[in-house]
Every structure is written in structure tokens, then in C-alpha cells.
Amino acid sequence: MSESASGGRGVPVASAFAGMRSVTPVVFKAGCPDCRGRFELAASALRLAIGASSRTTFYSFTCPECGAAVRKPAGERIVELLTGGGVRTLRLHSTV
Ligand SMILES: [Zn+2]
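That is the input. Now the predicted structure with zinc ion docked in place:
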């Protein structure tokens, strides 16, 4: 008589947590060229626009100090940083 232990390997508990990622608040340091203010912005305050080329790729935000609309070019690294931080991304399609 062999009594087999029940089930063998257990159910992977990790699967229960799949899709449950802790969201850490990300802030980005930014500066305003208008009023020269420096501040930290949450990901939701930033917008990223990805164009066809790196020249048309930029991020923008509204200065909390003076209300100016600031637009700055975003390099590859910044794009990665912003998208990874949950910044809303807009893809500019220049397809004719
Ligand atoms: Zn400003």
C-alpha cells in the first residue's frame, strides 16, 4: 500500500498576486524657463509626446508657479523614464 502525499507541488501563490503591483508615487524634478522655478511634478502632471523622430519627441507640463506651458525635448532616456513612471504618453502620428 502506497499512500501518496496529496497533490505534490503546491499551487503557486504568486499567481494570486499577479497584476497587483504596488504603485509607488513617482515624482519628476522639473524647472521652469519662464519663472525659473524648480519643483517636483507627479507623473500625472506631465505629458509625453512621442513623434516620428527624436526631434519631435518632447514632454510638457504646466508650471505650477507661473502657469506657463513648458515644453522640453525628451531624449530616449527621458522617454524611458517618463513612460516607466506612468506619465501619460501621446503618440504623434505623422503618417500621411
Ligand atoms: Zn514658471
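Strands lie at 27-31, 38-42, 46-50, 58-62, 69-73, 88-91.
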